[in-house]
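Worked example 2:
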Amino acid sequence: MDKIDSITKGSVRMYKERGHILYGKKRYREAVEMLDSAIAASPKTLEPKALKLMALPQLKDSEKAVELFSEVVGELQVRHNTEYNAKLDEIRTQYEVDKYIAEKERNRNYFLFALGGCLLLVRLLGVCLISTGWSRAKTSGCTNESKSRTAWKRSLCACERRPRTKRSPEAAFRATTFPIPI
């Protein structure tokens, strides 16, 4: 297949160059025939058509020149539209890729922000629990002391309410002194 394509390209090039040489020698009819052969071998090539457009007005064949000109312009528009659409598709694809990457980056940032907030809340909770534990330890020590004081005061009050009997000072001292629980 490559051999056929290279033969076609070679023949198109040969016809085109011969047509160009004949055009330079002002042998316009022969140049148009060579360029027609090049166009027949490769109808998508625009260069032989452009040379033929230059030769046709010299032959005073303006109708064919106008027809060929509109054909060439139509082909150029089709090529331009095809290339333009391909570039637009490439730009759209790049936009979608960039949009996807930006969305992933944004989601990553949201996740890191939420994670940082959670860690901050966990740390705050830990500080609260630790400070509550310290205050409970201090409070439990204070409550033990206050409980013993309250018991001592109650015992004193109970002693005062009892009817006084004549006791010896030693007995009275023993009745008022109670061991303080530790």
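The helical segments are 2-24, 28-41, 47-55, 62-161, 169-176. The mean pLDDT is 77.
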